[in-house]
Amino acid sequence: MIAKQYTLFLIGLILLGLLSSHVYAITASLGNVRAIVNVDMTESPTIIDRTIKVNNVNNEEIKITLDTTGEFKDLVTIKDKEFSLKPDETKNARYSVAIKEPGNYEIRVIVTFTPEKGQAVGLSSVLIVKATADGDLPTNNDVVEDNGDTDVNEENTTDGGFNFNPTKILD
Predict the structure, then answer these.
(1) pTM, rounded to two decimals
(2) Judging by beta carbons within 10 Å of its beta carbon (0-12, 13-18, 19+), is residue 166 exposed, middle or buried?
(3) Residues 15, 19, 22, 28: what is their CA dihedral angle, to the nearest 10 degrees?
(4) Are 74 and 53 in contact (CB under 8 A)?
């Protein structure tokens, strides 16, 4: 009787092992996911350069993709749209926002982590911009793409993770 129960238990255990699928998952990690920035506009557009700290805490190389979503996605230019990170590697992915008129803006950047095999994982980073201006703003249509050599002014950020640097483009 005990041998029969033992045999049935072993058969059940083997069937359970054969029927269970292998679970494979990655971990997504961002160093800074939310900031509120106050901008005093002196011209239109006012360019705000930002970074998102992307961390690969996995044991394999991960493909990273950045994209925007929401009402103000047309104001965003992503400079580091796609790249790969090796295990334990970190990168500050750059993007900029062109604010054309005073107001409140909620910018969402979606960061997708895609492994070589398995399911992708996505996280969102939110930038809230409160732009104000005194009087009429001069229009500047000669906006030049940033070459990445801008200085960072961390005193104007509300959290320790985001970098803030409004670039004022002169005629």
Answers:
(1) 0.68
(2) buried
(3) -130
(4) no
Nearest to 131 by CA among 152, 105, 159: 105
Cα 64 from chain centroid (whole Å) = 9
CA atoms of 102 and 61, how far apart (whole Å): 42
Give tens-digit pLDDT for 34-72.
Answer: 999 999 998 889 999 999 999 999 999 999 999 999 999
Query: What length does the chain have?
Result: 171
User: Which of 105, 1, 124 shows the shortest CA–CA distance to 54?
Assistant: 124
**46 three-class SS:** strand
Write the DSSP symbol of residue 87. T
Pairwise CA distance, residues 28 & 25, whole Å: 10
Q: Within a 10 A sphere around the Cβ of 162, how many other Cβ atoms?
A: 24
The upper half-sphere exposure of residue 171, i.e. CA atoms within 13 Å in the direction of its Cβ, equals 6
Q: Which residue has the higher pLDDT, 167 or 4?
A: 4
Average pLDDT over residues 115-129: 92
- Scan for tokens 């998952």, then name that residue: 25
Return the SS3 of 114.
strand
Asked if the bond preceding 45 is cis, omega within 30° of 0, the reply is yes
